[in-house]
Design a protein that fits this description.
The chain contains 16 helices and 29 strands. The longest helix has 26 residues.
Amino acid sequence: MMQRVERNFAGRQLVLETGRMAKQAAGSALVQYGDTMVLAAVTVSDSQSALPFFPLTVEYREKTYAAGKIPGGFIKREGRPHDAEILSARIIDRSIRPLFPEGFKNEVQVFVYVISADQENDADMPALLAVSYALNASKIPFAAPLAGARVGRVQENWVLNPTFQQLEYSDLELVVAGTRDSIVMVEGGALEVSEGDVVSALQVAQGGIGELIAMQEELLANARLPKMEWTKAEPPAGLVTKVKQLAEGRIAEAINQKDKHTRMESVARVKKELADELLAEFPDNPKDIHTLVGDVEYNSLRSQVLGSGLRVDGRRPNEVRAITIDAPVLPRAHGSALFTRGQTQALVAVTLGTANDVQRLDTIDDAGETTKSFMLHYNFPPFSTGEVRPVRGTSRREIGHGNLAERALQGVLPPFEEFPYTIRIVSDVLESNGSSSMASVCGGSLALYDAGVPIQAAVAGVAMGLIKEGDKYAILTDILGTEDHLGDMDFKVAGTERGITSIQMDIKIEGLDLEIMKEALAQAREGRMHILGEMAKALPAPRGDLSPYAPRIVTMTINPEKIGDLIGPKGKTIRGIQDETGAELSVDDSGLVTIAAVGGEAMERARQMVRAITAEPIVGETYEGVVKSTTAFGAFVEIMPGTEALLHISEMRHGRVEKTEDVVKKGDRVKVKLVDRDERGRLRLSMKALEPKPEGDGGEGNGERPRGERPRGERPPREERAGEPAAEREYAAEGASGEQAEGERPPRAEGGERSRRPRRGGGGRGGEGRSRE
């Protein structure tokens, strides 16, 4: 039976519906927000998985029919999910995972289909609402309803669930998920906002989350199914006691090694020794032994931090590991840096490209194609942790971490109009022991400095951790991989000295209150200031010039009527300039020409050729041109490529000229002066203006006509005039002064603005993207 609830949420109609679609799933829900619609369906396996972790899979797919589009390419169907879909799936996964009961290992699949897109409202928050309802209404064990809200700020006013258009003017975008009482996930970017602003945004989000949870509870009152029965695997009581007796002291000693690999080897050796001893007495419980020894390690680290205030590598809770920086490190890259913090190391390189290198995006959130002029790609090879594992393309984790680092740096980039380069950053993680994404932020900022990119300020990032037992907790700065694995929170904050540019929080407990988040933000700022100080010692400011291997870009503006002349028939002219000079050229509809070349000589040559084709004739200037045709009343001379003007017979020389061909012939190269441009844009030339006037010339002998007389050579007989082509009876300049040639125009330079507001998937809205995003 179909049931639905309707509410007005943040100024738009919100509908939550169940019982009409996907009824054979364990739970399903349809949510409509404006004209954006999402369908969520969840299923669960009846048997417990043998995997050592909870097997949860979230698939988020945008259907192109949702926006009335057909997929591009040869295969006209949706394929691999693009980055924006993967980032939305990660938001849902990170939000719901902490709310499944501990020890539950039945496989759960969550599917979300975006089936209508109004290109105003993002589908990810309605999707999280649909997933929460589907899980709570199903037989799958789940702690409580949750919801998500997006918060923006436009002209100092907080906006709940802003539209895409409102986000273009927002200095902050924060996605928050939580239950009625606590926060479980935070993701967002900003333009150097304060920690207090972030806390205020979280409070605004919590108000919206409460409304959405109340909406779910109203529908759940009549539609909730009984929860499935499941049993948490419990080891024998005797084994639990035995493991504690044998393992606690030895594990505590093994984990207190400063070096990651020494610590891992010590812990692995102790675990193997304990397993050998215990299997003799409990031969049927090898998995239970492994799990229980892992629990001892978990409890040992946490109790040590909460009890003594010292971490396993000897640091205090708020202490940052040692930092070393090398910049540059790659001689041919446009900018590079090697950033090492403890045993985490990132090699980061910057490449500068032209407007032709922008990434083109075709999504259901925009009516047309958008572009993105800033990209950060994060790579995490298995050797960075000393492991052997198959490499199967870019992982979801790599896409998520790259997006976090990209958003951190995007807010400080110069506008595209001021620095018209496409910027690509690649971060290759060479060593990892905690917070490689924040190392990528620091390395990316340094590499931009090394490349000479005039960013507004240096950006640094730090990962915070949390260990919480009851009311007692410890916040950790610059966490290790072990602390991330055994702790309760991974809270990453990046920004400048002025404020925060990117933030991400994941937790493993059911929720976190705002007071702890306030304290974590303040401690993260202390860590960030320390890292920025170390970075300033290596590179205090952007280099004064670009790499000699980077393209130089200049822009010039031409008359829009000359665009056709520059492009030529089917792009022949502009391609010819590129082939001859080696420079890259692009032109937009406003007449802005962008020229990029490696080396000043090629760029200057291309600029001169563009000027020669598109220059406007100036009255009073002297030109050397070619006679294109002759008539009885004068000659047409091409003084610039595509620009012809009339040289009247009376202006050819001082004195009377009987016949045009007596002075000039077709193909002759002559020097002329532009003496006039009339109101219709027609040009008039003179040769005699460049010659000295003969002495004693009274006027009749210089070609000037006395009143009432008509020179025989000036006007031909009527029959001759009637046979002339119409085009030759008009000034050629009227037809050759900039009309657009037929043919295709090369792709427009669509670098557009580089939006400083980072969107998930980077963004790239409005011609970024930027169209910044």
